[in-house]
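Anyone else keep sequences and structure tokens together like this?

Example one:
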Amino acid sequence: MNRPVTPPVRTPSTFQQRFDELITSNPMMIEVTRFKRKFLSVSSNNTVNIAVLMLFGVVYLAILALVFSANGYLQPSILVNLQLVLVCFLVPSMFHGTIAGERERRSWDLLLVAPISKAQIVVGKFFAAVATLFVAIGACALPISIAAAMYAGRNPDIARFNPVGVVLAQQVMVFAFGVALAAFTILFSARVRRGLTALGVVFGLETLFLVVVPIFVGLMVAGSNGPDNVLMDFTFFLHPFYTLDKMQPKWQSSYEQVQTFSPWMWGTPQILIYLGMAVVFLQWAIATLYYAENDVKFIPDKKKVDA
């Protein structure tokens, strides 16, 4: 008598196990739901959220009114750059307390004794930040796309190069930069004990790399061409505002043509690098949490090293 053949049991791969632990079976994904309840709830007992959402709605309608009243004279690049400025300020302001705030509220110890790993905590907090960015940038994409379509309608030579597609590519780039900035903010929130300290450090580093260094390099190569322009492209390859400028089609009156950008040089590489940086920052933040009370600093204590 033949025995029934038992099919072999498939053991999930290490990647699948890790994915299930951090994404599909992560209890900290409730942070995304908490975000919706905290910022998008309009329940009768949440008057602060209602006021904030009403203010946002008024501002949003004002931007739409500005776009339509401009009648095609408003360059979409102005709105995209303004959007990026808001990302630079709002992302650190909203997420500087993701880990440090838990310490200040004395709820960090409760998370540590819960049946979840530190990696699950960081990933859950991070996806709440990603959900916030997705909603915000998705909302901004509508008026910016309308402005691009109206601008293209008034400038037929620009319309040939699909300005709406360029704007949508810029939106993806801004989103990727915001994801990297959120992970960077979470990293410092994990490495310090107070949220305001993390906020100050992130704002300081943003000012250094996005403002001070560009001014210094710009003064060095001002009025130069050739190799100096290559130097600027190399120096600011990951600068989000410089990338937005490079992605924007430009009218050259001397040649009477539109200069377009190569997506393989400006846009696609920056998006991939920003997302890779986010992974590195998250891994760094997870590793930081395994040190007791943030014992390991960025700059080791010389006395301890000598001892």
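And example two:
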Amino acid sequence: MHKPRASVIMPCHNRAPMLRLSLASFAAQSAPPEDFEVLIVDDGSIDDTPAVVAPYLGNNFRCFRKPHGGVSSARNYGIERARASILIFSDPDMVACPDFVSRHLSHHQAATANVVMGGKKEILTHLPWWMPRRPAIFALRKLSETHPALFRKVISMVFTGAMRPLLMEKDVAPEFHTLERFTLPFYLPEPPDPASTCIAWVFMVGGNFSVTAEMLQQAGAFDEHFTGWGLEDIELAYRLHRTGACFIYEPEAASYHQAHGFSLRDNEIAIDRNLRYFVEKHPHLEVQLHGAFIKGHISLERYDELVRRYSEADSAAPAGAAKE
């Protein structure tokens, strides 16, 4: 059996409407189909996920169904079944640009890094049934540009109930550029050059990164003690960093996060719980400062400055000196 160069691992739980566009984008990649496989891990979905996946099965698409265990469990399930030496991680609410796979592969082929972080944008693919299309897109774009936190709060409140699609599978390929009309800024900051920061790992999000299977084996897979939303990807990134991984940012390996409803309160509870576990597992300054950063107590620049200052002081300390 032919061995692909990359395995795209996509966990999925009850995301059928968005999964349609995600799968269509991977079926329209510029990379030859024999270069990559797409592993969909259906994590106990009870919606139309099997019907959405069915037309794509065969060739380079495979699907595995398992009892619901959470995103870390689903990703690990995919890792165990991947056949390639390069693992690319995506999510069912992500629409990949046509060069997504090839851009990730190019960095690994050139050995410029063993962890590649792709670019991220937000995209409107559905709207609540009652929202007028043009005014809603204009207003939401303006809000995302000026008040990203408020934008997420609005999305969490109003993107519920009956939704109507703005885009269909045919819009993803071959006319991918038409999606720009529905694109918004992503809510997370743009990563700096990894060579210029001590904390490149904090920008690695689960919906768009790749890593060599060898490096992942050294660092270990996703920690399944993280439950609910958030930080399971950052904790893995921190272990990769501690293992000696070299990170690179490739904005052209872009994926578009489809705006969808969620429970802001549930996410806040999960983040608090996962952050406590993160700090307990890694009682290091970088991790403690990460908690202060995501809570808004320190800026990204201050975070980087404090880690850099501590690292310089630590390396200058005499061998065997006690550390706080």
